[in-house]
Amino acid sequence: MRPQRPESADFPSLPRAVAGVGARSELICFDVFDTLVRRRVEPETTKDIVARRFAAELARRGTDADWTLLRHKRAQLETELGRRAESRGDDHEFRLDELIPLWVRSIRSTDTEWSANTNGSLAYRRADESLVSLLHDHEIAVEQAAAMPTPGIERSLTAAKDTGAKLVFVSDTYLDHDTVLELLRGTGLHGWFDGGYCSSTFMRTKRSGRLLKLVLEREGIEPSRSLLIGDNPYSDIEPALRLGMRTIHIRDKREGKRRARLRFLDRLSRTNPYWTGVLCQEIVESGSGLRPDSSPHYRLGLTLAPAFIAFARYILDFSLQHQPGRVFFLSREGLTFMRMYRALVRRLGLADRAPPAAYLAVSRAATFLASIDRLDLAQLDRMWFQYPHQSLSRLLRNLSLPIDEFAEIARRCGFEDFDQPIEDPAGHRPLRRFLANGSVRTAFLRHRDAARSLLRDYLAHRGFFDHSLVGMVDIGWKGSIQNNIYRAVRGLRDCPAIEGIYFGFTHVPGDDFPDSRKHGYIADTRRGNWVEEPIFKNGPVFEMFTTAPHGGVIGYRRLANGFVKPNIRIEDAERANFASHFAEVFRGVDDYFRQYLRCAPLLDASADDLRHHVLDRLRRYILYPTREEARQFLEYSHVENFGVYKVATYEFQGSLRRILFGGSPHLIPARLMEEMRTQFWPEAVLKRSRIPLANFLYDVTETSRAAGKG
Amino acid sequence: MREQRCEARVSERDGSLFRERLLPLLYRRFTFILYRSSPRYRDYVHRVGPGRVVSVPRYPDAITYYLAQRLPSPIVARIGEDGLLILSERLHRVCSVLGAAARVVAKPMLLLLRGLVGHLRRRSAVCQHSVLRAPVNNVRTLLGGAIRVEGFAVQNDVLELYLRRVGRVRNHCQIFVHLRPEKRSVLPWDRVRYGFFCKDHDPPITLPSWPKGRTLRDRTDLSDLPSGLYRVSIGVIDVVTLQCMEDYTTCRPSVDLGWIGIRGRPVQPESIHAMLPASRARHDAGTPEIVIASSGSSLVVPGAAPRPLPEHDDLFSDPRCDPNHADA
């Protein structure tokens, strides 16, 4: 029989090739891996992941084992099982369900405790069985997470179906037929096939040609009336041609490039954790669930999402390590992280180990009054320090005190204009008289006690006092709400210790309490690392796109049944934001996270490993935004509802005239730098200015200054 | 149809959505190298430990990854990961050679420049890095782009400030320490209008006594203050212009160190109004210490010579205690 000439095609041209070559075929066989489905990671990487899980499980059971050693043992066993099969007259093949028990036993036999146990007691055998079952299930879960349909394969399958031929899948794999079918179901491709053949079921492989021969025999079709489509020249094309089948050899350079990059990153990540994050990014973004060519707002969501997910992962890692009784996510940014945390816990099967999550409707405005011990400047200074130039009316509003009640006394104390900013509170006589006034203090204490009681009851209803240690999660930045809550409840008998977990944390000396600790993930000023600090230059971007759309908490009310409910208010500007561009950004974050969840079993990098790359990605966005990123930010606004009450917008707020003509010409650079430092996100302003190299020079100057060289 | 288009687009992008642009990548690496050679970075590494330092990729690896994203698919698929790693190593070698060449060229020039500057300043060349470790309490901030607050400590009612001169200071300067009491009633009558005690370093620190790169340990005795909690702000004033050196991050004229507790002397209501002006209760260790590091050992030498306290120290006419100059 003269061998057929092999056809070649890439994926875009495959439908045409199938329609042409498959026209006279009665049977079309598809290879599974790298033809119907792609793996997000290399096949060997899935085995690495299972080996790591094995090592982790052994560690939990009290046996330390290096995962690379486990991996090595597995490779040995695979060869050994293949040889045994050959000695039985089968092909070099093995099955997952015979491999895993041997793998577990191979480690147990080196465990001295086990060996001392006379060939394994019943308890040990049961432990082994549970481990075998766990590893088997994990490997299948990893394979399922790794599999994704080859982009555009449906069109090729449609073309194949249109020829009227019977479609079967044929695979050289150690997974059994049902598992492969399940993988295809997960990718939505199972419905196309009339049957399937796996080498592990028949112990015959495509490479030897015996599996294809068996397929043709079972289907009762002549080799010349059948077509095989596959990517591997040795195990797909050559054997099929030997049998006289027609073939289409898929050569996909793009996929080859992706896989070369994956292997490259895999090697680099073993020496530098930075590349672990890049590898995770490659894996997550290899799916087709993202729309990179959508609007710039959507793309911003895709830019921010890895940082948010890494933070959710950090919360999970931190909680598993410290085991707080409950993790409270503070409104409003906490809602996004709580959803991510819960989804991660479910996806990773950690529901029995991870602490439960709860949402706390709190805000600085709703907790500040309750946190104040007495009405004096030392106490108010916590707020005044952050928001100088307070007026009396603004002060009372920040304190959640009714201005009408205090207006008369304020006039008597010498206040004429309640909206006049107070520049020097210590030297401001009317303010000092007002704060020292007995009626004011009495009224203040009445309001404070009421606010404190409501807050404490609300916290009690949320289970805050049920544990000795609780976690508290927020975006950042100074941990004021945590401070306020701690101040309001400290001294109570059931007051728990608090571990604050923050996306970025700016440490304020004087806000440290022994039972209320704070940890910054992406940035923490206590580490003193300049590389982390750029994220504080554009804090609002992280706030805006994690904030819950339900509005701000302005206080609490007691219901008739005694329960305490938060009072919520949403500003019109916020409502408008959520209805417009914000929705697109949130969609980008959601899509990315969905994609991440699909791949979660493949991504066993810890939050600490992810941080390096995530930080670099955020630095790129903040220090060197593209013109589009810098411009789009002008369309956003942020509502400040404590300290200052305004809608912040992000255009250039300064005077070009002052920079150019405000003094001696040789001091223009100095004035420019001075002006830039007062801007919100100066890098975006520079980018919009279109001055070449402006961002680079600004970065050099700022880095030099920060490093102490300027 | 739309889904198909999206699929095709993802396929064309080879799975990586965000392809790094070369220039921002190089810029970030450049500024990182600038930062990595600074004492601040060394302090950071010392603080968090080598295992927890934020890692950045090697230049050649980053460029190779950039190429792996940008080069045509057939080339990358053909050279594979081994080819990429070899490319990375070769780039590394090229970068190393270029770096070494740059250093060879730059070193004599830098030495010449340094010698010239040293000659002009009439100073012998000493190591620029102080080995004095400031206490770790994270108030690190830069004042006027020239003086870095390294840390502080309060022990036995003595406030120790660690300030390092890292840039050019035009004139002699004076350190001020403001202590805002929790109970304002403890303020003497002449301080009530300001709301804080003032503990300025007197006499001013002269520039020759505080060369660039060295850490000054300034001690302020607080034992004469009434016991209680105080919020401490510190800062530096240019004694010629009387301008405060602004905190680089907050643009404030002073740095808030937070609350400290002082055992001090017990508060006696009858004596409060009889207290002397705060600056008369001068810290007794008026001499700042400047630490010079040479070949790994530290040597503490006296900085400015001690001077007697001024006989007439009228705070009302003292501009340094004017709230407009501090963060009252």
Identify the strand order in the major beta sheet of chain B: 1-2-3-6-9-10
C-alpha end-to-end distance of chain B: 66 Å
Largest sheet of chain B: 6 strands, antiparallel
Order of helices and strands of chain B: HHHHHEEEEEEEEHEE
What do the pLDDT scores of chain A average to? Answer: 85
Q: Could you say which overall geometry of chain A the principal axes of the C-alpha atoms support?
A: elongated
Put simply, the count of helices of chain A is 31
Indicate the low-confidence ranges of chain A by residue numbers.
none
What kind of oligomer do you see? Answer: heterodimer
The CA-CA distance between the termini of chain A, in Å, is 81 Å
- Characterize the overall form of chain B: elongated
Strand content of chain A: 5-15%
Uncertain ranges of chain B: 1-15, 122-132, 268-328
What is the number of strand segments of chain B?
A: 10
Count, helices of chain B: 6
Commentary on this structure:
Chain A has 710 residues and is an alpha/beta fold. In chain A, 53% of the residues lie in helices and 13% in strands. Chain A is built from 31 helices and 17 strands. In chain A, the strands form five sheets. A six-stranded parallel sheet of chain A has the order 1-8-7-2-5-6, sandwiched between helices. In chain A, strands 10-9-11-12-13 form a five-stranded parallel sheet, sandwiched between helices. In chain A, helix 3 (67-87) packs across helix 4, helix 16 crosses helix 21 and helix 16 (364-371) runs parallel beside helix 22. The longest helix of chain A is centred in the middle third of the chain and has 27 residues, at 296-322. The model of chain A has no long low-confidence stretch (mean pLDDT 85). By secondary structure, chain B is α+β, with helices and mostly antiparallel strands. Chain B has six helices and ten strands. Chain B has helices at 2-12, 22-36, 39-48, 59-70, 73-120, 269-272; strands at 141-143, 147-155, 158-165, 173-181, 197-198, 215-221, 228-238, 255-262, 289-294, 297-302. In chain B, strands 1-2-3-6-9-10 form a six-stranded antiparallel sheet, with no helix packed on it. A four-stranded antiparallel sheet of chain B has the order 5-4-7-8, with no helix packed on it. In chain B, helix 2 (22-36) runs antiparallel to helix 4 and helix 4 (59-70) packs antiparallel against helix 5 (73-120). The longest helix of chain B has 48 residues, at 73-120. The radius of gyration of chain B is 27 Å and the shape is elongated. Chains A and B meet through helix 12, helix 13, helix 17, helix 26 and helix 31 of A and helix 1, helix 2, helix 3, helix 4 and helix 5 of B.
